[in-house]
Amino acid sequence: MTDFPAPSRRDLLAGAAALTAAAPSLLRAAEATAPLGADALKGRTVLITGCSSGFGRLGALHYARLGAKVIATMRNMPRAEATSLAEEAAKEKLDLQIAEIDVTSDASVESGTAKALELAGGRIDTLVNNAGIGITGPVEVQDMEATRAIFETNILGIQRMLRALLPQMREGKGGQIFNISSQLGRVIAPGSGHYSATKFAVEALSEQMAYELVPHGIDVTIIQPGGYPTKVWVNRNVYTGALKERSDPALLAAYEPFTKGMGTEDGSGRSADPMDVPRAIAEIMAMPAGQRPLRCAVHPGPKPQEAINRVSAEVQLAWLGSSRLGPLVKAVHGAG
User: Is residue 16 one of the residues assigned to a domain?
Assistant: First the structure.
């Protein structure tokens, strides 16, 4: 494996000076394509977290319909959502298995991924880190219980899954990781609690890992959805409502109107098709290895994060592109 030492201060200063010369279109994006064929994902084995509803459940069925072997995971089994997903898969004769994984638990991730690898025949080539939660309200209102809960799921959960499945991907010299971020992983909405903080961390973790995994032939893609009408609103209200109930009324009053509607958001006005996200992921899965985008913004409406994505790619290439880390950065941003 090639050694890639850290760049020197001289390298970094030279890169910073080259910012103004950076190419304007260094960010690749997943472009709309014709619908994938029935066997587009045949031969691929996909593990997805958070499949009880939303993008996870829809994706599990979609990838299986395209020929993939799918391991759909969720916590708190047995549960009705697992039963109904299994019944739907059986009705269509899909290659879809269900395993229990709670991404907030070291033990559950260890046992669940071991079971998943057994179901998959020892090899999982694609991991979709979809499990996540939201808790709204101003930063000061987020007590340590709420703070731990969202970071434990949205960040530490991803880290647990990566450490569990990357060894066999590296051994197989290839693979694909999708981490579900958000528009709010690049832009800030006041009153959204620590959601942006966790999704900003997802963005950074994913990009760093993408560079580090180039020598191992493993692609990383960050999916940045906008708002969709999924069960996320119901789940978010459970956490947010509980937070509001245990918060000091004086503290809540200090941040009106941000706190007034805590626990009552219902996603009204959001009519975009949640299948946009599984379709985008499947299209990227079907791309040749090494040519998949680092980031993919998904929403039919405004995508404010795209401007930041472009600038970020330009800065990384100008900053590190001529350094000893340049081959890694260029490989990820398609500038090699």
Answer: no
* Whether the bond into 78 is cis, omega within 30 of 0: yes
In a domain, 209, yes or no: yes
Q: Which CATH number covers residue 300?
A: 3.40.50.720
Residue 15 placed within a domain: no
d(CA 159, CA 181): 14
Tens place of pLDDT per residue across the chain (336 aa): 444 444 443 444 344 344 334 333 334 444 445 688 889 999 999 999 999 999 999 999 999 999 999 999 999 999 999 999 999 999 999 999 999 999 999 999 999 999 999 999 999 999 999 999 999 999 999 999 999 999 999 999 999 999 999 999 999 999 999 999 999 999 999 999 999 999 999 999 999 999 999 999 999 999 999 989 888 888 999 999 999 999 999 999 999 999 999 999 876 667 889 999 999 999 999 999 999 999 999 999 999 999 999 999 999 999 999 999 999 999 999 876
Catalytic residues: 195
Maximum CA pair distance of the chain?
62
Phi–psi pair at 144, nearest 5 degrees: -70, -25
State CA 151 to chain mean position distance: 14
Residue 125 domain flag: yes
What total number of domains does the chain contain? 1
Structural domain of 53? 29-305
